[in-house]
Amino acid sequence: MFKRLADSGKSVALTVDGRPVDCRAGDTVAAALLAAGVDRCRTTPVSGAPRGPYCLMGVCFDCLVTIDGVGSRQACLVPVREGMAVETQSGRREAGR
Amino acid sequence: MTQASDLAAHYDLVVIGGGPAGLAAAAEAGRAGLSTVLFDENPGVGGQIYRAITSTPVADRAILGEDYRAGSDLVAEARTGGALIANGATVWSLDPARLVGVSIAGQARLIQAGRVIVATGSLERPFPIPGWTLPGVMSAGGAQTLLKAQGLVPDGRTVMAGGGPLLWLLAAQILRAGGRIEAILDTMPRRNWLRALPHLPDFLLSPYAAKGVKLLREVRARVPVIRVAELEAVGDDRLREVSFNGRRLPADLLLLHQGVVPNVNLAMAAGVAHEWNARQLCFQPVLDEDFNSSVPGIAVAGDGAGIAGGTAAAERGRIAAVAAIRALRPSAPVPDLQIIRQRLQREEMGRSFLDWLNRPADSFRQPEGDTIVCRCEEVTAGQVRAVADLGCEGPNQMKAFMRCGMGPCQGRLCGLTVTELIADQRGTTPAEVGYYRLRPPVKPITVAEFASLPIAEGERLAVEN
Amino acid sequence: MRAMSEEYDVAVVGGGLVGAATAWGLAREGCRVALLDEGDRAVRASRGNFALVWVQSKGIGLAPYSAWTVRSSNAWAGFADLLRDETGFDVCFQRPGGFHLCLSDKELETRANALKRLHNQPGAVDIKSEILDRTQLIKMLPDIGPDVVGASFSPLDGHVNSLRLFRTLHTAIAARGVRYLPSHRVEAIAQEGGTFRLATSQGEIRAGRVALAAGNANMRLAPMVGLEAPMRPERGQIVVTERLRPFLHHPTGTLRQTDEGTVMMGDSHEDSTDPSGLTLGVSAKIVERALRAFPLLAGANIVRTWSAIRVMTRDGFPIYDESESHPGAFVVCCHSGVTLAANHALTVAPMIARGALDKSLVAPFSARRFYVQATG
Ligand code: FES
Fold first, then answer.
1. What is the CATH number of the domain that holds A70?
2. pLDDT tens for residues B399-425?
3. Which of A22, B141, B437, C329 is the most exposed place for a label (fewest CB within 10 A)?
4. B6 to each of A75, B17, B81, how far by Cα in Å?
């Protein structure tokens, strides 16, 4: 869906559902997912419908993912960090994760 | 980076939001010697209009345009002024006594403010069409953020739909960045011209006229523009096609936009009185000429005070800051308000024309049937209309009955739609129907953060009696 | 035997859970009913209740209240079935038994004493409650934190989806032809020749009988028909998390997981009648106790808080009364609009339809008790 205009910036390695993904310093987790072609980051806790980032400014909460074991974080507000483990979410979040 | 523990317990001025209004306000207040902190939720300041202004990887200045670059000066001004600028800082509560609840990196704090300037800006008007929740459908503002902050350009088959200045600006930026747009589906009714025309002379005098015409030409020369009266995003697990006027266009990405509206959540939760703006079709705070709200000591500046654009936002931020300085430190030198107000007036000229011209069609604001209205709780337009028929007069009863507005976005993506649907169904006005009652936290915080807040003895006894 | 000038057999005043349940019950009896309500921003306890169908600890100081509560709790499953048959909505009534968690030995001792007092009252009904120590408790609630020393338990306790109940009742009354009149705040009530004339902000409503089910506003309305409803409203706050996978299968008195997955935490008492205010520290205390009870909630996001004004009579027990000076006027007033909904729909409404309260059931709940005590 998206391509990088300039392949500048330091490379940052993270995993998405265990799969290595290469992104750039300055990416948010949502940007990293979209740049890597991951357009679905969760399914809803109501009907299980797939969703992806919509607003990229922290208001829609459709970009919720699990980051380093912590669920329901807004991917569009969290900057990437080397070694970060991102997991897509399915339905309701588990208490304690 | 500023941590929650670095914050003082009290500041003369707390500015919430790091867009043009917040930056200008923080710059003025810092310069005048007020102890000032600016909280901004994003990784960097700039707000949405100057998003990532200090870090954008887009090196070619022509792509984002000179107006974007103007944001650098504001950031520099705010930084040299002496205000503390905290990014990654989510303000989740503001009460009428100006106690500010803020979280940074999972740590919550309550900060007492002498004065508060709410500069939480705008967000895109909900665009509830069938399929707008599918992955592959995004707001145009979202795509613009990806371009500014990460240099990401839409790739594959991209369709844009809606109208308003931001949509056309983004189209031009995508094209300049080497992207491709299959089509722009213009949803603005042609008859908007009739109501816009009387305001044309003013618009022609504003700084936006020449720029706007140039932009439209630039885009129209390279992208087919089709006027549409109906629009649907089609796909099962993601967007596959865009359907309009009986046609279908295969698409990988659909970018929606039909204008921006004030982001009212924090100000409303603080008890600030709001009113319906019938021209801009949104709620906005009731403010005096210094942008003071109905709650003493709380001002609302920038687009959150009513949509007027980024340059106007900065001027509004300065005016609100001057009022704060005069209240807290009358001896401090302040800039000449007269000049600022004149600049603001010039910026606001031409707004009426743009508002009428870009007034979204009723059908795109008040959907029918199975179209999802509340994205969080997946409530449809048909359900809202049916419950309105039961006798439900307003959004608060609607929320109780249908859960719309109860999800994590707290009504930001459905509030206006629900109000307008109830008004439409019951034959009354949005002003009469009103808006959701909002309470803190206006952004989710964790149980652990909430539990860590200070608890007075009387507050303990209210629970453990 | 409706007089020509009467539009309705009964005007029910108050569109919350008590009024809606009563109106539905009246409609089932064949009455023509108008349900008068305030507007969207009405002070409405029904939007802010905790959704428990709760028996434990109800009735200390008034044994018949315990029996009345058990009666409703026992009727609830049937009530929910009737509503489902009429509307297709499942209000998710469950009675898995509920806990009252204690976070210190002192709390547990206080709790045990309270239940003992309840049990020893003359005329007490058996609510099968027991006190559990931590070892017993952890077998039933494995996720409790180290601060939980024990709990009381009653197998009669349960919960529902109270917002869905609210919507379901309104759907059911609409289907039964009850005329719902929002933004009809009642300003005055007069009785002329057996007909009640209710002056509202939108004109006059006439009815043969009137049932006041307006919560704390009964304090203002009851004297208009020669009755009293002494109230002492208080504010309670509730905190709600995002939807989580099921982890808690029993309600507790202050924390429960809803069928939708959200976790509700509550139970605060403040002297305030301002429903728009919210005391952050009070909510923080609620959340702090919830976290100690279930530490696995630490990372869950709180998405909502709200405050509501509790309907509270002066002694906390319900008021059911009929007027001697204005025959045909009734007061239906209580704190536990969810727990007692089955009684209001299936027991109280038929009494009002018949025109007289059944003293054998509700005599203890007359507001006269306040004056007997005051003079005696
Ligand atoms: S994409 Fe909307 S909140 Fe992140």
1. 3.10.20.440
2. 999 999 999 999 999 999 999 999 999
3. A22
4. 25, 19, 19
